[in-house]
Amino acid sequence: MNRRLSLFNVTSLVIGFAFLYLPILLLMIYSFNASRLVTVWGGFSTQWYGALFRNEALMEAAWVTVRIALLSATLATILGTLAALALTRYGRFPGRTLFTGMVYAPMVMPEVITGLSLLLFFVAIDLDRGFWTITLAHTTLTMCFVTVVVQSRLMTFDRSLEEAAMDLGAPPLRTFFSVTLPLIAPSIVAGFLLAFTLSMDDLVIASFNAGPGATTLPIKIYSQVRLGLSPEVNAASTILIGIVTLGVIGATLLSKCSVLRSRRNAH
Amino acid sequence: MVERSLPRRLTAGLVPAIPYLWLGGLFLVPFLIVLKISLSDAAVAQPPYKPVFEWGDITGFFGALDFENFELLTQDDLYFRATLSSVRIAAVSTLLLLLVGFPIAYGMARAPERYRSLLVALVILPFWTSFLIRIYAWVAILKPEGLLTQALTGMGLISQPLDILNTETAVFIGIVYAYLPFMVLPLYATLEKMDDTLLEAALDLGSPPWRSFWTITVPLAMPGIVAGSLLCFIPAVGEFVIPDLLGGSETLMIGRQLWSEFFSNRDWPLASAVAILLLIILVVPIVIYRDVEARRVEARP
Questions:
Q1: What is each CA distance from A241 to A6, A21, A28, A40, in whole angstroms?
Q2: Nearest 5°: CA angle at A157, between A153 and A162?
Q3: pLDDT for B219-254, tens place per residue?
Q4: Hey, is A44 helix, strand or coil?
Q5: Could A221 and B133 be called an inter-chain contact, meaning their C-beta atoms sit closer than 8 Å?
Q6: CB neighbours of B148 closer than 8 A, spacing ≥ 6?
Q7: Do A39 and B126 touch (CB under 8 A)?
Q8: What span, in angstroms and rounded, lies between the C-alpha atoms of B279 and B95?
Q9: Contacts with B220 (C-beta within 8 Å, 6 or more apart), sequence order
Q10: Beta partners for residue A33, in sequence order
Q11: Interface of A with B in 43-62 (CB under 8 A)
């Protein structure tokens, strides 16, 4: 492939990436602004970070959000991996079409509908709204994303390894844990990280399913933003962006390592 | 995985059964409840609403249905206008996304091989930062006294503050910004696989570049164009956060209508009816999207 980058290509890339990154960078820069006004620069200061850590309601919400994200991402990873195995290793089982539909539907369904339908369901079965309802809702939404990530990995790798293990007399479970699982591990980790981020980030579904007992960080941020701009929100956002960036870099390195290792093993 | 012994068969059957039951219980059943409540009386279903489920009494469940809520939707032209304006805003945004996204995806596909995965990572990274925060960032930029006005006044380009926030323009900017990765990635995937020899042949035969673009590049990129457009259009129709934070009070969108019906007016049956209406609008694009995706997955080498 001999391709040349024209001036037009370079320009569109530069403008495109500037458009993607400038707003986020501005937000981060203004979190170190000494002035209370978000759009007026008043010198460098880290005071908003201090204010943030002293803001107990916000810290409490952050802690709840992290707990929900950890729990729902764990459940979603288990369920999503099982669903991916069902779709790739089970051929045509009864009800497969409905199953595929249910896996793909929550991903394109507008969040307002998913949020509302789950809430009405929880009210119908008399489950109090709060920590658990948000966790169940997030698990349902994010497991579908895990399924897609793990499924694409299961479809591309070499089935002969699994077959060899079975021919040598390994029972299916043993084959799964000693052959399949190590091979798809990076995609499972990626799926978990994706589920965790989606849960941390969700406002709409959490709003429908939150109760007096539990408020998440996005709900808190949203109610503050509606009242106007606040430097504390900038500070909270910057911390979140920092955590996510580190996580993505970590995940990238992890998958690079595993690719290298599998290449080495192949030779 | 064909097993002969019964206990083995049972454990093997658990693999599809567990996620199946979960999705059935927490996705399909709730959905049927929305359908049911949208067809029930406001009086019965007012919060603290207690739908009495007599399990097994299916006739009771589907009895006493009425279309009153849907009649309400047709009587008040607010919903009709919200539907139209949601579809219009989503369609215009999708078109803008194509115009903005295509050059970026094209540039990525033309970049040297060793940089491509880095560029893909750079497109995905903003998607990992909170959606709410990315929209919030634009509030500070678009405010009348905000950063954009300051920058342009500083350059001497404008003398009056820009009044973009709380207009439809701001909603377009927000949707284009938030959904750009969804448009760029499918486009890039098809453009990267494109066979360059066709373009070279056209060039040798004396075709001007713009003509090669329209007759070769665009038709070949069609699967990516369709997938990216639907991937942006479908959620944009039901978008709530962007019109709420960037749009004015007169920006009508159906997702926002559902939200206010539920949270402000506390009319759950009407909110359910709006949800069903939104689904009816989206059912055709969703089905088309599923078919396009299935074909795209099969077409992979």
A1: 33, 12, 9, 22
A2: 120
A3: 989 989 999 999 899 999 999 999 999 998 888 999
A4: strand
A5: yes
A6: B141, B142, B162, B164
A7: no
A8: 22
A9: B190, B194, B195, B198
A10: A44
A11: none
